[in-house]
UniProtKB/TrEMBL annotation:
The keyword Manganese does not apply. One of its GO terms (molecular function) is hydrolase activity. Keywords: Hydrolase, Signal. Residues 1-20 form the signal peptide. InterPro entries: AB_hydrolase_fold, DUF900_hydrolase, UCP033909. It comes from Ensifer oleiphilus. This is Alpha/beta hydrolase. SUPFAM superfamilies: alpha/beta-Hydrolases (SSF53474).
Length: 433
């Protein structure tokens, strides 16, 4: 590698370090005007107050930060914790624009340490009664937390957000809070936060963060399953950013296989209505392999035996991918991984020749209209990786997708059709209603 290429690589790595979410200033939103949200009361928010509360679920190890406040760091925990995180306005915020901070964190419960205890008996291996009892107690406690929030929510729907590389616990909570404020706090909001922000390994901690994201998959699959099984949940929306999309893709892959072998689907079994990937830091081929593993395996048992020609009805389940060919952080990731193309860079005009056929298989006719790709042509500043928070057009489109249940092509979503399922955001920003 010559000197210029080495310097370019270093520049890209600096960009990648900068992909920790750039905190966008929030302007207080007006009340929602769509029919779906009229009359609903904000959940997790006190009347007349801009403070809010989220449910968190994490496999980060706990730590103590300034002010003797509980938090969670970049080290891994062998157990899954959950509780409440309070968000409050910063004291320096102006009346017109509010910036927020994590105010307090309160842990409610934990799942048992993994791997769960097992015991050998004459009839084979069994989980220990203690492990099963502790697991069931944690499930009941977590579902009680979700149910409590559902009771106060105008929409009996849950938003789950998974963050990306180099994000702290506070970063993840604040990003989730921004998303939920855009949705007028009408949904139960949950942040799934994994041990990002590691400082070991190579590439400014990117390597260790990558392994920590893989570590989180089993825990997050368990969490999503528990949330979906909570009484009263009508729809589940799974959102992820950057490296978090790889975590979510793996979770969706495993849950989709679970659903398929039980002759069901992600919608029927887990009430998953939307999976939304923002700036996904995952290779195009890897994403396709994970998300559609069940489609490409006709020998997989559908119930008690395989039925090669049968696929279960997918109901409301839909995947939306937001990408930008100008995303500098993903250019760095491509350089590190040697990937042909990251999913978050996908655009009709920049497909590698040897990947054009693979990408065409994502088209609506091939995937039963399960997927939409939305290209964001803007740069979003120096790095261009956190546009899902900073760009008004993307936020408005997300609101139309999740809150208003508007499909691509609906006038409420200011998208320009390129060639289905590929779309581009309009240059004219639309205010979030």
């Amino acid at each position: 590698m010559d000197f210029r290429r080495a310097m370019a690589g270093l520049f890209m790595l600096i960009c990648l370090v900068g992909c920790a979410l750039e905190r966008a200033s929030l302007t207080a939103q007006s009340a929602a005007t769509s029919p779906a949200s009229r009359g609903a009361q904000p959940v997790g928010k006190q009347q007349g107050s801009e403070a809010s509360e989220l449910l968190y679920i994490t496999d980060r190890a706990p730590t103590v930060v300034s002010g003797n406040r509980l938090s969670y760091g970049a080290k891994r925990a062998i157990y899954l914790s959950f509780g409440s995180v309070s968000i409050a306005p910063r004291r320096s915020s102006s009346a017109g624009k509010r910036k927020f901070r994590v105010d307090a964190v309160s842990e409610t419960g934990r799942f048992p340490a993994t791997p769960y205890g097992i015991v050998a008996t004459a009839n084979g291996l069994h989980r220990t009664p203690q492990a099963v009892a502790a697991h069931e107690q944690a499930v009941a406690s977590l579902q009680a937390e979700v149910a409590r929030r559902l009771a106060a929510a105008g929409r009996k729907e849950v938003i789950v957000f998974v963050h990306g590389y180099n994000n702290s616990f506070d970063d993840a909570a604040l990003a989730t809070d921004e998303i939920c404020r855009s949705l007028q706090n009408q949904f139960v909001c949950i942040v799934l936060t994994w041990p990002a922000g590691g400082v070991g390994g190579s590439f400014f901690g990117y390597s260790i963060d990558r392994e920590s994201s893989e570590f989180a998959v089993a825990d997050f699959k368990k969490a999503v399953r528990v949330i979906a099984a909570t009484k009263g949940v009508e729809r589940l929306h799974l959102l992820a950013h950057s490296r978090g999309t790889d975590v979510l893709a793996s979770v969706v892959q495993q849950l989709a296989i679970e659903a398929y072998v039980s002759r069901s689907s992600l919608w029927q079994r887990y009430k998953i209505a939307n999976a939304v990937f923002f700036a996904p830091d995952i290779d195009l081929d890897v994403a396709s392999s994970k998300l559609f593993a069940w489609v490409s395996d006709p020998d997989l048992a559908f119930g008690s035996k395989s039925t090669p020609n049968t696929l279960p009805a997918q109901g409301s389940m839909h995947l939306t991918v937001y990408s930008s060919p100008r995303d500098e952080a993903l250019k760095a990731s491509t350089l590190i991984s040697g990937s042909a193309l990251r999913l978050g860079q996908l655009a009709v005009g920049n497909l590698p020749r040897d990947r054009s056929e693979a990408a065409s298989r994502w088209a609506g006719s091939h995937m039963g209209r399960l997927v939409d790709f939305v290209e964001y042509p803007g740069g979003d500043g120096f790095i261009g990786h956190s546009y899902f928070l900073s760009d008004a057009t993307i936020r408005a489109d997300l609101v139309a997708l999740i809150r208003d249940r508007a499909k691509s092509g609906d006038p409420r979503r200011q998208l320009i059709e390129i060639r289905r399922p590929f779309w581009r955001t309009s240059n004219t920003p639309q205010a979030v209603r």
